[in-house]
Specification:
about 90 residues; three-stranded antiparallel beta sheet; elongated; two-stranded antiparallel sheet; HU Protein, Chain A; alpha+beta
Length: about 90
């Protein structure tokens, strides 16, 4: 599902909301998750899963074009752990 499909589904389920209001709700939802992760926090949606970040250590990589060794700095990356209910639905 892409963002526009999500907006259409939400608009269909909430006919009392204008399309710009539905879009604003989706924007706020994703912005809040992004902001919390940027602050180093965790976002848990019961029954769905949890978003968090993980640290990646610095490492020695390789430029695939030239084969030259390069230093890749450490960084934080987003991580999603599915909840028990979603795993059960996927594997039923």
């Amino acid at each position: 599902m892409i963002r526009s499909e999500l907006l259409q589904a939400m608009a269909k389920d909430n006919p009392e909301l204008r399309s710009d209001e539905v879009e604003q709700v989706v924007d706020i939802f994703f912005e809040e998750i992004t902001q919390r992760l940027a602050e180093g926090g965790r976002v848990e949606l019961r029954g769905f899963g949890a978003f968090s970040t993980r640290e990646r250590d610095p490492r020695r990589g390789r430029n695939p074009r030239t084969g030259e060794a390069v230093d890749v700095p450490g960084k934080r990356v987003p991580y999603f752990k599915p909840g028990k209910e979603i795993r059960a639905r996927l594997n039923s």
